[in-house]
């Protein structure tokens, strides 16, 4: 399956990605994770991306598209993939169309996770992530068994530097201005699957699985 996960910051894209990649056996391509890895490793790309991410702004399209195209040409993406956090602008969506055309493949679905803005802020601020395996938790909605420690691997949990209230609010505004037009873009092509993201995590996963199995 060739899938896109669309939704505002904190909607649950990363959380549902963990479910979808296991259920449908596709690789997870998160542009946010790619940038965070580069920041951690101190690469030139990481240094350039960090300036934008810390302010809640989008990294310029030119930096993002090339990374995704390279990744989509890797062997594990030949039978499918899950794009999480890409595309995020109309320019990125049009570039992706061209990449897929060159690969002679088509998208199966764009999963649009819908959550209202007031809930997004508390979800993002309460998020904790495992330094070691990347698993996502929430201090009250989905806490680990032992505070600060990953259930899956025992790794230490941390809070993302862009998960502070002011930056989260900026990210939501950027989503409304630059990313939400993609809902129409994919809706017009009958690719869009709307998912009610305010339910609990398992119910959201069940709805996604049911929609994709048709
Ligand atoms: P990115 O890493 O993509 O972040 P985002 O889109 O802001 O999304 P989040 O990771 O914040 O949220 P999510 O939807 O994955 O939610 P999660 O599952 O973790 O991007 C970060 C930055 O990188 C951008 O701001 C930009 O600068 C840059 N960037 C990335 N891609 C780019 C691109 N294509 N172009 C330009 N720039 C780009 O869930 C959140 C919390 O809620 C968790 O704690 C979770 O446990 C909890 N939760 C999840 N689901 C539920 C539920 N159903 N009920 C209760 N709690 C839940
Ligand atoms: Zn872990």
Note down, in words, how this protein is organized.
This is Adenylate kinase. By secondary structure, the chain is of the alpha/beta class. The chain has one domain: Rossmann fold (3-Layer(aba) Sandwich), CATH 3.40.50.300. Helices cover 48% and strands 15% of the residues. The protein contains nine helices and eight strands. The strands form two sheets. It has a five-stranded parallel beta sheet with strand order 2-3-1-4-8, with helices on both faces. A three-stranded antiparallel beta sheet has the order 6-5-7.
Q: What is the structure about, briefly put?
A:
With 214 residues, the chain is α/β, with parallel strands linked by helices. The chain is 48% helix and 15% strand. It starts with a strand and ends with a helix.
């Amino acid at each position: 399956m060739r899938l896109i996960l669309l939704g505002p910051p904190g909607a649950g894209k990363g959380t549902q990605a963990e479910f979808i990649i296991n259920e449908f056996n596709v690789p997870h391509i998160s542009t946010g994770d790619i940038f965070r890895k580069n920041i951690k490793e101190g690469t030139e790309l990481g240094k350039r991306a960090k300036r934008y991410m810390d302010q809640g702004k989008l990294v310029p399209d030119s930096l993002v598209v090339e990374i995704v195209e390279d990744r989509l040409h890797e062997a594990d993406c030949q039978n499918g993939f899950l794009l999480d956090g890409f595309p995020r602008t109309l320019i990125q969506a049009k570039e992706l169309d061209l990449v897929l055309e060159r690969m002679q493949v088509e998208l199966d679905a764009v999963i649009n996770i819908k959550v209202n803005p007031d809930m997004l802020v508390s979800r993002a601020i309460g998020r904790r992530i495992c330094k070691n395996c990347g698993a996502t938790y929430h201090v009250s909605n989905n806490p680990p068994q032992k505070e600060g420690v990953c259930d899956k691997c025992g790794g230490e949990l941390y809070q993302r530097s862009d998960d502070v209230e002011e930056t989260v609010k900026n990210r939501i505004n950027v989503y409304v201005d630059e990313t939400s037009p993609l809902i129409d873009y994919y809706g017009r092509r009958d690719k869009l699957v709307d998912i009610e993201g305010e339910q609990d995590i398992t119910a959201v996963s069940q709805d996604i699985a049911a929609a994709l199995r048709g």
